[in-house]
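hiii, so i know i said id send this last week but things got crazy w the move. better late than never?? heres the sequnce for the chain we talked about at the cafe, plus the structure i predicted for it. fair warning i was half asleep when i ran it
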Amino acid sequence: KETPKLTPAEENPWYVLATICDIWNKGDERFFFNGRRLSNHHVWNSWIISRLDSEQKKLIDKNPLPKTYLKNTPDWADISKWVKKRFEERMHRKLNEFERQIRESWWDNYAGKRTNFNIDFRKTVFKKRLILNFFIIPPCVEILFIGSKFTQGADFMHVKSYSFMVFRSAHFCKKLKFDGGVFNDMNFVSVIFDALVNLSHTVFEGKVNFNNCEFRMPCDFSDVQFRENYPLLFNTIFREKITLSAKQNTDTEIYWPNPKNC
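okay and structure toks below
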C-alpha cells in the first residue's frame, strides 16, 4: 500500500498562524505587548475573537474557562500589524488574502447554522511538537487532523473547543497530552498512538470515538469526565496499562453519563 504524501506543517497557513510566536529563523524576534511576552495562544485567541459575531461571543462570554484565557489577551487591532508582517514573511502571502479566502465559507454563513469551514490540518506532517495549549476553538467550524503524522507528539492541554475535532487515521509517534482540556465531539477512529497518551482531567462534553484505535503504550484516563456519552471503543486495542477513574458523579463533575440519557 502506497504511503500518502504528507504536506510539511510549515507550508500550512493555519500552522503558521497557530505558531506565529515561535522562533523559526535566527533573526526572528520575540513579540512583546505592554511589557509582556506573548505566546501563540494569545495571538490565536485574539485573532479568533476578532472574527466572531455577537452570538458566538455571547457563547464564549458565558463560559468562565475561555474568559480566563482572554484575561491577558490583547485586542487584535493592537497586534495585527506585527502578526500580518510575520505571516507574510513565512507564507509569502498576505494574511488578509487568507482571511478573504475563508470569510464567505465561515463567518458570513454562520447565521445558517452550517459548519462550512474547516481549520484544515489534513495530511500534514508535524516535524516539531505541536503545542496548542490554551487555544480556543470557536463554534461552527471543524478542526481536521485526518491522516496527519505527529513525529514529536502534541499538546492540546487546557484547550476549550466548541467544535468537532477529527483525528481519524492520524499517527502520534511521541507523547500526546490532552489533560485539562474541555472538548465537544471528537473522532479518533483508527488513530495509532506509539507513546503515552495523557487525557487526565479532560472533559468531553460531546461524543468521543476511539473505534479501531491502537494504544501501544500506557493511556491515562484518570479523572476524565464523559458528560453526555460513553466513549466508543469498538475494536480498540490497549497493549499496555489503561488508567480509569471509578468516582461518583457530583453536581459539578460528571465522570460517567447517566445510562438513561445515552
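btw Confidence is low (pLDDT under 50) at residues 107-115. thought thatd interest u
miss u guys!!
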